[in-house]
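Let's practice the habit of predicting before peeking. Look at the sequence and jot down your guess about where helices and strands might fall. Then scroll down.
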Amino acid sequence: MKTCLSVVKREGFFLVIFKRRGLGSGRYNLPGGKLKDDESPEQCAIRETREEVGIDLLNPRVLGKISFLHGNLREEAYVVVSNDFKGVPEETQEALPLWLPYLPEFNVWPDDTVWFDYVTRGQPFECVFNFSEDWNEYYGGVCKVE
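Done guessing? Here is the structure:
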């Protein structure tokens, strides 16, 4: 499975969501979701961000790629960044949007504090992280700068 994560930055703040349902509910995260068969990572980020917080990303670009190994499964997530958008982020049934100067260090996926540092520096990166099949245990991972 392939997914996308949207990093939206404006004036030194990042658009973070408090996830209300689905995988990761009850955690702080970024807008994102599954790529459809005919979508690019950038198109996925535009669609998912619109669905989750009601804004339209402008000029998104892939900055990183994360491989998640959990059980016998492998997922790939593309980290897509955008510094511009149309609209005002709105609360939805899925997400509560917040503007923060950083990604919280608590109540997030444990790998987020590793790869998000590359995002703040604008460095292209690739990471691999290991989780249990049910996503409840984190076994660590590695990242490299491209």
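How did you do? The helical segments are 41-53, 112-121.
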